[in-house]
Amino acid sequence: MKMAIYYYFEAPLHRAIKIGLKLTLVEVMTAQEDNNNSAIYEIILSLCN
């Protein structure tokens, strides 16, 4: 059984790092991709739970 791992970054992530993580089956999303790049820090933290 595989366990899903997700990372949510509040800052833009270098493309090479993102690709490397995806190759190891880690899902990655940045606040910018989620249209929350100008959100309050507490809102971004709540998305990580």
From TrEMBL:
It comes from the Bacteria. This is Uncharacterized protein. It comes from Limnospira platensis NIES-46.
